[in-house]
Design goal:
17 helices; Phosphoenolpyruvate Carboxykinase, domain 1; Phosphoenolpyruvate Carboxykinase, domain 3; binds sulfopyruvate; 28 strands; binds guanosine-5'-triphosphate; 2 domains; globular; binds manganese (II) ion; single chain; alpha+beta
Length: 589
């Protein structure tokens, strides 16, 4: 190899000299290569064939029982200066991190094949797309990367033209949780991941490259890499508004991206177009608007809860040619999880199903499937220049206080809304579930640099001539005193998006409050919904003492990022706290 690929070949040789695989295989991304990988994995037991009549081309992978989620406590950002990684990341000096990882990689691929996986994040012809190469000893990772990215020859050709790519070295190692680390070196555009085969730890194009490394590059180059879905909402008039929404892991991105409008909306002509379900790269276009691409080519979605009632689009998408990980199995070889008809015969570990062993499907069991199989895949999803955004939405699992929807009065307020996001933890990461934590912009596990610098970067898009999207905050997860959700969610979330679009188009006035603009009485269309009046009230009520406590907590939490916390954000927090104090005084008078 010559020219710009020489550097790639040198690095592959170095990695092979370290890990000492029996073979090196350069992936071309072809159908034949995929079929051969599947054949090998069926033979080794890494994949099980599913019922070919009901699920043609579908396979089940059961991971090591200790390896079922991202490991945030073992994930590091290794910058030369500790402060550049920020208090939001675990950190090691790069030399120490390399030494630690290289000791693990030493000889770790003995007897195995090292796959060279060239991939492109984003449409292959898009100026916003970026390439990488993952070296891995896991055929499961290769098969997933082929679905999730543009993998193979076209990506290699682009790397040959550009010369620049993100280097990712991965080994499943011994799958020992004590010998498991995910290390990022943003200054070197490189990643080293050892000891896990699970999605976000092992499919290096996804969270490691497209969020942690890309967020670092984006800051230097004037764009944003975010943990957001992208969805197009076509109104009965035929206009399509694109909306990007940041919800933490397992908080509803895939579901919102594939939303099916309620019956009456469908009749009226509303349509929903899926552009992306997890990651969004966006940058200002020549007209001042923000344009977004989905860097991924597939969905790595949460299986449990995906049902004919909640997300029929996702079910249709995974009906063929999908890989399922850690789901349960019916007696006739169909994948199973809560929400599907039938009953589990085997649990996610392959044991005969016994409720005493816990849920049949692992709570973080997933499907991997090509986005092109999605019935609502947008005809503009692969536009090289992306789609223009009308709105950015933040939201999380908040059982109390946060209303169903509110709008930021301007960009600065919107950035504060994102920075103040909180959510209950989920099974997508190892650790306790259901603990409320601050998760700014849903990027706590994924921001590749100091959150203070990140907030400043967000604020910097507010330039003369910029036509920025409106910013909203939503909460689908308010609960009543019995712990039941107050809002039906799923398809009915379109009612909230309709209000947002009316606000974007200047057709509704809203109701100004100290914390943002809420829907005025009757502005949200709730007809046809079986929603008790008390719930309607509760979902849009403003608890001033509760909000004053929340603002104080937000102020305190943001100070963790001092001295890099932008003063503009601090002043915005103070402005709202003061407005709430005034509202409390007025109420008391
Ligand atoms: P990651 O892939 O981990 O980033 O998750 P995600 O944000 O794409 O979450 P997803 O859409 O897969 O939803 C996760 C869980 O939340 C599923 O069990 C859904 O059924 C549930 N969920 C999604 N939307 C709603 C909603 O509007 N209301 C309620 N109550 N639950 C929802
Ligand atoms: C998430 O955890 O946010 C996911 C799944 O989307 S993973 O690929 O593991 O990051
Ligand atoms: Mn995610």
């Amino acid at each position: 190899m010559t020219g710009k690929l020489a550097a790639l070949e040198r690095w592959v040789n170095e990695a092979a000299a370290l890990a000492r695989p029996a073979r090196v295989h350069w992936c071309d991304g072809s159908d034949a290569e995929y079929r051969e990988l599947v054949r090998q994995m069926l033979a080794s037991g890494e994949l099980l064939g599913l019922n070919p009549d009901t699920h043609p081309g579908c396979y089940l992978h059961r991971s090591h029982p200790s390896d079922v989620a991202r490991v945030e406590h073992l994930t590091y950002v290794c910058t030369r200066e500790r402060d550049d990684a920020g208090p939001n990341n675990h950190w090691l000096p790069p030399a120490e991190a390399h030494a630690k990882m290289d000791a693990l990689f030493d000889g770790c691929m003995a007897g195995r094949t090292m796959y060279v996986v060239p991939y492109c994040m984003g449409p292959i012809d898009s100026p916003l797309a970026r390439c990488g190469v993952e070296l891995t000893d896991s055929p499961y990772v290769v098969a997933n990367m082929r679905i999730m990215t543009r993998m193979g020859e076209a990506a290699l050709a682009r790397i040959g033209r550009e010369g620049r790519f993100v280097k990712g070295l991965h080994s499943i190692g011994e799958l020992d949780p004590e010998r498991r680390f995910i290390m990022h070196f943003p200054e070197e555009l490189s990643i080293k991941s050892y000891g896990s085969g699970y999605g976000g730890n092992a499919l290096l194009g996804k969270k490691c490259h497209a969020l942690r490394i890309a967020s670092w590059q984006a800051r230097a180059e004037g764009w944003l890499a975010e943990h957001m879905l992208i969805v197009g909402i076509e109104t009965p008039r035929g206009d399509t508004h694109y909306i990007a929404a940041a919800f933490p892991s397992a908080c509803g991105k895939t579901n919102l991206a594939m939303l099916i409008p309620p019956e009456g909306y469908r009749r009226d002509g509303w349509k929903v177009w899926t552009v992306g379900d997890d990651i969004c790269w966006m940058r200002p276009g020549a007209d001042g608007r923000l344009y977004a691409i989905n860097p991924e080519a597939g969905f790595f979605g949460v299986a449990p809860g995906t049902s004919a009632a909640s997300n029929p689009n996702a079910l249709a998408t995974v009906a063929h040619d999908a890989i399922f990980t850690n789901v349960a199995l019916t007696a006739d070889g169909r994948p199973w999880w809560d929400g599907l008809p039938g009953a589990p015969a085997f649990d996610w570990q392959g044991r005969p199903y016994d409720p005493a062993n816990g849920p049949a499907a692992h709570p973080n069991s997933r499907f991997t499937v090509s986005a092109r199989q999605c019935p609502t895949w947008s005809p503009h999803a692969e536009d090289a220049l992306g789609v223009p955004l009308s709105a950015i939405v933040f939201g999380g699992r908040r059982p109390a206080l946060l209303p169903l929807v509110m709008e930021a009065r301007d960009w600065t307020h919107g950035v504060l809304m994102g920075a103040a996001m909180g959510s209950e933890t989920t099974a997508a990461a190892t650790g306790a579930v259901g603990v409320l934590r601050r998760d700014p912009m849903a990027m706590k596990p994924f921001c590749g640099y100091h959150y203070g610098d990140y907030f400043a970067h967000w604020l910097s898009f507010d330039q003369p001539g910029a036509k920025l999207p409106k910013v909203f905050h939503v909460n689908w997860f308010r609960k009543d005193a019995e712990g039941k959700y107050l809002w039906p969610g799923f398809g009915d979330n379109l009612r909230v998006l309709e209000w947002m679009i009316a606000r974007v188009e200047g057709r509704l006035r809203g109701r100004e409050t100290p914390v943002g603009i809420l829907p005025a009485a009757d502005e949200l269309k709730l007809d046809g919904l079986d929603l008790p009046p008390a719930a309607r009230h509760e979902l849009l009520a403003l608890d001033i003492p509760g909000w004053r406590a929340e603002l104080a907590a937000i102020g305190q939490d943001l100070e963790a990022y001092a001295p890099r916390l932008p003063d503009r954000l601090r002043r915005e927090q103070q402005r709202i706290a003061a407005a709430l104090a005034a509202a409390a005084a007025a109420q008391a008078a």
